[in-house]
Amino acid sequence: MRICFVVNSARTQKATYTTLHLAFSAYRRGHDVAFASVDAFSQGEGSDIVAEVVRPKAGRLRDTAAYTKALRAADAPREDARLVDFDVIFLRNNPNAGAQEGDRFNPALDFGRRLKQLGVLVVNDPDGLSRAGSKMYLAGFPVELRPKTVITRSVERVRAFLRELDGPAIIKPLAGFGGQNVFYVARGQSANVQQMISTVRRAGYVIVQEYLPAAAKGDKRVLLLGGVPLRVGAAVAAYKRMRPKDDIRNNIHVGGSRRPTDFSEAESRICDLLRPRLVADGLYFVGVDLVGDKILEINVFAPGGIANINALYEVDLGTAIIRDLERKVELRSVYPEPIPPHVFMRA
Asked: Is the separation of the CB atoms in 289 and 221 below 8 Å?
């Protein structure tokens, strides 16, 4: 299998990144693995899409750390490659990182869509990513699965929603990521609310969400493959993220901690309700953030967590995902015509 990971920059990859765990697992299973930075694509008058790809420098690559070091080496082999020659193009770039305000062009989606038309297996599906790349995607799911929410740029509507909610809320950017510019508003609070709204509006639309008290006990990141919670043996690919002291965010990079967690029947039912839409949209590998019986976010562009889950449960999620990709590629060789999404639904 030939697989190319599309990332923001191959030079900035880290051994803890989920992408690197996936790539190392594929490398260890004997596949040809390459990386392309999202700004390295070219297309001329013909149909060919070419990108400069890089592979790890040859050597004894025993673990993810060694693999990452070899990938980032100054003399790592580089070449211009026809992307249609790859079996899988795995889109793993974060479109928000380094994006300029008002910039709506995401090269990974536009080139990925063209590669899909040329018959390449592109995951996640670029059309699905276009639909699911905003927090508005949640609005298409049953009301009982998500917190009360308003999406607007109107200060008056934000204030009206807060009055109607009559409880604590979270204000954050619609296009935000990584816990940036996330504010907590207490019930009846008036001080600093205008400043919060103004700060978030600079990035575009504002999302205001009811605050779920259960979030104080952490949220759960669950990884779904083909719309189904990923399992390795008895372990479900899920962990709890606990917030640092004096912070409302549970993100690991802001000081949150990780803990093992159970996976309840109620949470399994939530994933069951998500599955048909995710599968229909071609969203193969997804991260879902849960608080109690509600979904906070669906992460589709570069869902992470493999390093944390592997360490907590002593499992190897990367290999499980690559083995499933091998199955998808094998099915495509047997059925050369486009395969309906439901064929890939996992039992």
From this structure: yes
